[in-house]
Write the structure tokens for this entry.
Amino acid sequence: MNKQNATASRDISFNPQAFEPKWQTQWEADKLYRAVIDERKPKHYALTMLPYPSGDLHIGHWYAMTPSDARARFKRMQGYNVMFPMGFDAFGLPAEGAAIKNNIHPKKWTYANIERMQKQMRSMGAMFDWEREAISCDPEYYRWTQWFFIQLYKHGLAYRKKAAVDWCPSCNTTLAREQVKGDDRVCDRCGTPVIKKELEQWFFRTTKYADELLSFEGMDWPDFVKTSQTNWIGRSEGASVTFKTVPQEDDKAGDPIEIFTTRPDTLWGATFMVFSPEHPLVDKVTAPENAEAVRVYKTEAAKQTDIQREAKDREKTGVFTGGYAVNPVNEERIPIWVADYVLMSYGTGAIMAVPAHDERDFEFARKFGLKITPVIQPVGADGSPPLLGETMERAYEHDGVMINSGQFNGTRATNDKGMKNPAIKAVIEYLEQKGIGKRDVNYRYRDWLISRQRFWGAPIPMVYCETHGWNPVPEDQLPVLLPDDIDEWKPTGESPLKFHPTWKNAICPIGGEPAIRETDTMDTFMCSSWYHLRYLSPHDDKAPFDEAEYNYWMPVDTYTGGNEHANMHLLYFRFFHKALRDMGITEGNEPVLQLRNQGMVLSEDHSKMSKSKGNVTAPDTLVKKYGADTVRAYLMFFARWQQGGPWDSHGIEGTARWMRRVWTLFTDPAPASVSPASDDTKKNLRRKVHQTLKRVTHDFETFEFNTIISSLMELLNEMYKAREAGAFGSSEWDEATEIYLKMMAPVAPHIAEELWTERLSKSYSIHQQSWPQADESAAKEDMIEIPLQVNGKVRDRITVSADASEDDIKAAALASEVIQKYLDGKEPRKIIVAHGKLVSIAL
RNA sequence: GCCGAAGUGGCGGAAUAGGCAGACGCGCACGACUCAAAAUCGUGUUCCCUCCGGGAAUGAGGGUUCGAUUCCCUCCUUCGGCACCA
């Protein structure tokens, strides 16, 4: 056999740079991947998160998109009518940065990048349906973003309010709570610590859906996303209780104060109250002689940043107001304090303090010498003395029995939260009966702040006039276009649109008087909350999306993307769908059935890739060197997709080698001098093919891309051996090659097409073939090797027929000389034949 | 502190209804081809020993079991989310 010649000819003929663009052009010309409604076929909407047009496609985009593409292709071969659209999330800050730097309009920069990235995306050989492309900064797109804002406004889900909001001093804009990260409270975009500003801004009423967003019923989503969202929403069950304040002399009517507590069962232990410094009633409850101290404390608190105030290990501070409240269950007069450990942004901004059973209240009470009354007594701690306020060393926060609580003494308090705790349940019922409190739920979740003081976003379509206040722009006047003739878009802290000479001038839609437009633009997460709907009919000028398309394609069957969006995009996206549903625009409770998140491709030194560190891997260079198929395959192979990992520039060589070996197997002339393969060889080949097919099919379903590639590599190795053994030309061989290319087609669409169409001369296109069906009987083994264990250690192996009975296997095992040696004439204590796979002998 | 995910050779990773640990690939070593190198092909590659053969090993320790990477308990480490949230 002359291997040398084969090698030489192969290296010349494997040239992905030649056939990859050829097929990309061909597929596009033949509209192979157009997704058109076809009622005869089951649909599959495969969605992958759309990119921001930052300039160049990086390896992370490939990592997100090409395995998703492979799976979409697999679904398509399985007979689904698959829609796999792509677009651009094209509004956002970097465009403004670039605009300032290069003195060009953000629009120009953005569209230039889009064009560049479209070209790069085409080199991936993905089955994107470009006729469905949607670009969020197109007026035909943001017209509908604005339209949705107006619908939300009309349904009371968009509102304007003044509040202390998060402000990024580097991005010069407000941020939503979700966009502030970590304990050091930094901007999600740029890492700058945020500050608080008191501003009037537009909000979406996301909290209305807090409870519904906690339900993930029927959703095949990763656990970490579900728990992350659950944590974020932060639901606490408890009670709200009204305390009366004791009137100051000049003020006869003492105001009622509502508080929220998760532990109403400890109400009898509430020995003081604490107000947040910002609480509106602080001044009213403050006694004249304490007024100066309170004023000073409030001023100090206002100067502190949130980061300082919310630092956990900080020592508690506070001042007495001189005012008192009455504990509604025991009529005890309790002092009211002001302290910054109580936050205005949670609950009612005031708490009842139960120092005996709350760590924070305990610390505060000890520091200021306030009364501590235990009301839950631990049980079962034999001999240990009962809790006493004077001697307790820390708050007792576990289960026990209620004491010092009047009629409830003796009630069992468990560690359960909410109504599952008998003590809490009993007390809430009592409070409701007496009319002093009620069952209540609180969330840490906040409404979504969507105003941005930036230029490159969808203008908020609202107009203000002195007489009629805020009103939406009439829908027939949409879109409210961004001006082209703007030369001042530098972020100043105020919206650049404000400084355009004429843009903000409008007329009131109600009375026709002169009015002013809202000059803030929308958070770009608003644009990406509905892009999956725009893909349905991207050029529709009658509606945001076409109803027939919606009815056929929605909901999204599989959504893939990065895991950094768990509490941002994915929460907004769900909120948006539910809001639209309640307005009668969409149907169903959730937009996405199945969600899968890929991990991140790290650089070779295990750090995050970044342009500034110069450790990025450029896909364009890799495509040039290896071809797109190899890059795709390596991205699927090198790590668990859902986990990601560091790039390895040597590792890709292995995948490149595999690709060349595939090419060689299909293009090399058959070895001439071997005799025809034995029946066994052919049967074994066929078995391996169908075993691989089963595995690959399974792994595509479960997103286990790395084992798809390794199974294919393994089968290729077997095929080489079978060819050596003379299988070439047999019907088994032909079947193997056909199935091999079909399995390869989703992963490496170009080489599969080239070999299928050009080398095997099969009918174009392999991407219109259906996924092969595994033959179970062919995949089954005839003979199996069974390990024989003695006391858990493998001592011998026997080969038996795959359908041997347990008794046969047992007999064969005992017949083994090695086993007999170990038995040494004794009777084994126990013999177990495990599922016909293994024999375990216990001596 | 609370919630979640995960710890397997030099490396990326296979294998879970409880049944042969290390598939596949990288790297490395040796060999073939070559004047030589690259490429390619072949062989080997968890660790330890006295290398015929035996022993140990899936973050650590314990438990259940004939049998545990897989199940249970305790602990350690890494990553992610939340955190003075009443």
Q: What stands out?
A: The CA atoms of residues 102 and 109 of chain A lie 9 Å apart. Residues 235-443 of chain A form a domain with the Isoleucyl-tRNA Synthetase; domain 2 fold (CATH 3.90.740.10). The mean pLDDT of chain A is 90.
